[in-house]
Amino acid sequence: MLSLIKKINLKKVSITALIFSLSMLSGPRLFAEQKQINVFAAASLSDAMNEIAVAFEERYGIKVNLNLAGSNTLRLQIEKGVPCDVFISANAQNVRKLDQLSIIDHNKVTVLLTNRLVIVSENDNQRKFQNFDELILYAKPYLSLADPQTVPAGIYAKEALINAGLWPYVKDRVVPAVDVRAALVQVEMGNINYGIVYMTDAYISDKVYYPVYIIPDKYHSRIEYLACLIQERSDRAAGNLFYEFVKRVEMLNIFQKYGFSTL
């Protein structure tokens, strides 16, 4: 009986030792905290970025925390020290401002995508415009825009309206939104009958009529989305991995699926 107990105890010790040894070998993989990166991207990129984030996580096992908002809002957050690894802006101005503050790596900046502006209306109103001037006649009493003072989509829209000579007639009708998606929602909900948004935002919505009118590129600066890498992050390598990942052909194809043009 004593010998049997000893054998059982020896087996228990052996099993315990084996479990401990395995835990020591696999511990770094099983119990180490998962790597994470913070990616700030323009609200108009939301659908594509959610898909790309999943692809990156599946490939590298690094969690992507997305912060999707107006580019100006995101830039201000970065300036205030909110942790960010990669920033994708809907215009060059916000990237330049970060570069002037030495916040980004100016060797890691690339133009990813381009976009266009369109006029949309609520679904019940399926009038097509033959020219830009018709906006004055029908966009009453309000016109939905992303904030034309701070948000790229609104800045581009205001520029187009000024260059077309329409701004003096519509400026008092503008209802500014926090970002371009919010401007779209105001039309989707029927609160405002017309809005100017990116083509890609209109493309994914089944709650607006599109396109009422595609605004000619000649009226505004080229709409470019820039990706950049933030300097002095604790895990710069992971951020750089995502920065390079988003430029791959497979990822650019995802952007194209949502209506963006690639370079």
Describe the structure.
The chain has 263 residues and is of the alpha/beta class. Residues 1-32 have low confidence and may be disordered. The N and C termini lie far apart (80 Å). It has helices spanning 2-31, 46-60, 71-79, 92-100, 134-138, 152-163, 167-170, 180-188, 199-204, 236-245, 249-257, and strands spanning 36-42, 63-69, 86-89, 104-114, 117-122, 143-146, 174-177, 194-198, 208-214, 224-230, 261-262. It has two domains: 36-114 and 223-262, D-Maltodextrin-Binding Protein, domain 2; 117-219, Periplasmic binding protein-like II (D-Maltodextrin-Binding Protein, domain 2, 3-Layer(aba) Sandwich), CATH 3.40.190.10.
Question: What descriptors fit this protein?
Answer:
263 residues; alpha/beta; D-Maltodextrin-Binding Protein, domain 2; 2 domains; six-stranded mixed beta sheet; three-stranded antiparallel beta sheet; elongated; disordered N terminus
- Which range does the strand content fall in? 15-25%
CATH topology type of the largest domain: D-Maltodextrin-Binding Protein, domain 2
Uncertain spans: 1-32
Question: If strands are numbered along the chain, what order do they take across the biggest sheet?
Answer: 2-1-3-10-4-11
What shape does the CA trace take? Answer: elongated
Question: In which range does the helix fraction lie?
Answer: 40-55%
Number of helices: 11
Mean pLDDT metric: 88
The counted number of beta strands is 11
CATH architecture of the largest domain: 3-Layer(aba) Sandwich
The gyration radius over C-alpha positions equals: 25 Å
What order do the helices and strands follow? HEHEHEHEEHEHHEHEHEEHHE
Distance between the termini: 80 Å
Class per helix and strand makeup: alpha/beta
Q: Could you name the CATH class of the largest domain? A: Alpha Beta
User: How many separate domains?
Assistant: 2
Largest sheet: 6 strands, mixed
CATH superfamily of the largest domain: Periplasmic binding protein-like II
